[in-house]
Amino acid sequence: MMNWAKSQKVGLSMLTFLGDPNSELTKALDLELTHPGPVGVLGPGRCKRFAMHVVDGVIKAVNVSESADDPTGDSDPSASLADGIMATMK
């Protein structure tokens, strides 16, 4: 995750990037991508596109980019982009 953060030029910022290699958190938060279209291409155990605001271990907001006809959120990822999650912090 640190390499991805560096490629996004946010290296050692106030953001924390976390991996979920066994999909444990993904499943606990009900964020597993289960739509047959993307799963057929990407395989099982994938996470939906989301951003989360957490303060002192408490989830304050979760924004998921998805719609019925676009379960991966590719056509409109705005909810999970920085501006989308930052809007929940006001």
TrEMBL record:
Name assigned to this protein: Redoxin domain-containing protein
Signal peptide region: none
Native species: Thalassiosira pseudonana (Marine diatom)
Domain of life of the source: Eukaryota
UniProt lineage: Eukaryota, Sar, Stramenopiles, Ochrophyta, Bacillariophyta
Transmembrane residue ranges: none
GO annotation, cellular component aspect: cytoplasm
Gene3D superfamilies on file: Glutaredoxin
Region (Disordered): 65-90
Gene Ontology terms for molecular function: thioredoxin peroxidase activity
A GO BP annotation: hydrogen peroxide catabolic process
